[in-house]
Amino acid sequence: MRQAVIEGGFGIERVVWREVEDPAPGPGQVLVRVRATSLNYRDYLVAKGQYNPKMPLPRVPLSDGAGEVVALGAGVSNWAVGDRVAGIFMQTWLDGQYRDLYGKSALGGAIDGMLAELVVLDAHGLVAIPDHLSFAEAATLPCAAVTAWNALFESGDVKPGDTVLVQGSGGVSVFALQFAKAAGARVIATSSQPAKMERLKAMGADWVLNYKEEPEWGKVIAKAGGVDHVVEVGGIGSLEQSIVAVRAGGQVSVIGVLTGVAGSLNIAPILHKHLHVQGIYVGSRAMFLNLSRALSQNQIRPVIDSVFSGVQIQEALRHMEGAGHFGKIVVEV
Ligand SMILES: NC(=O)c1ccc[n+]([C@@H]2O[C@H](COP(=O)([O-])OP(=O)(O)OC[C@H]3O[C@@H](n4cnc5c(N)ncnc54)[C@H](OP(=O)(O)O)[C@@H]3O)[C@@H](O)[C@H]2O)c1
Fold this sequence. Notes:
Elements: E1 2-6, E2 15-19, E3 29-39, H1 41-48, E4 64-72, E5 84-87, E6 118-122, E7 126-128, H2 135-138, H3 141-154, E8 163-167, H4 171-182, E9 186-191, H5 194-202, E10 207-210, H6 217-223, E11 227-232, H7 236-245, E12 246-254, H8 268-272, E13 276-279, H9 285-298, E14 304-309, H10 313-322, E15 328-332
Parallel strand pairs: 8-9, 8-11, 9-10, 11-12, 12-13, 14-15
Antiparallel strand pairs: 1-2, 3-4, 3-6, 3-15, 4-5, 5-7
The structure holds NADP nicotinamide-adenine-dinucleotide phosphate (NAP).
NADP nicotinamide-adenine-dinucleotide phosphate binds next to helix 1, helix 3, helix 4, strand 9 and helix 7.
């Protein structure tokens, strides 16, 4: 079978395909034929060597993939050949609160990922995918959708009538917009591109601001009443505006690092406004199951920006680098 690897050093040009022996599932494991994968900003950072410069290579990239079960290892009773499945981001985080050791089982980072024709996963490291979704659609869920879901409804407590702020038009933010609207919330979005601002409005965003033209967007939003919850993906360059934008007692889910992780920050509003600032690192298998139920119930479909073939993985990563995408970038296998 063929698998993609980051080999011989980091860089988009170092992500290449190679031929290897077909893997076989051991006891308690499942063999999955991968049909589609999707890109997250993390996969771009991993390929560039910016996520973990000490990551041992070669490494199979990408955390997200969906496909069908083709063989079962000894003792596996919760799956059948032909089941449509997606891997979970952290193979060992099944339920409950996050623990340090779960991070050591993250696909496409700590361990090999999903960009391969065949992968072996633990029988608990999978979920069934919603019937109404294609493999390409389901492949967008494990990282971005679970993260948005966790921020809003598991670690967060967004209710109908709340106002949620989402930032930009990437994978996490577009899912957050869809989920928040489905839950009856009002959504304020930011984007740097007028055409994308129109698309966000068409998807139901109630108010869209251009964060480049209005760098103090947090103040503008606060003046208009503030928000209850921020899905913060911008990182250090946007966190200060986010904590200005949120109302007293509101929540800020710290998720993304698009502008970097380190810098100066005025923390005074966090205490003066009794803010709840929480870190989010994707989510558990149980959260993925809750998300899937909500997607089915509401017939929500992921927004796919573009579909590349496996051999175009480098083009797909460069497309993400260009930041022209809206929603998710899929790579079929
Ligand atoms: N903690 C976690 O578990 C977790 C999980 C998933 C993702 N993440 C992180 O969350 C971030 C988003 O991930 P993603 O995969 O959704 O990325 P993505 O699809 O690549 O999103 C890129 C988009 O973000 C917007 N953006 C860029 N800089 C921005 C800024 N300063 N302020 C507001 N928006 C900005 C741009 O939208 P416009 O073109 O509309 O301006 C850009 O197109 C990344 O940092 C990623 O590493 C973290």
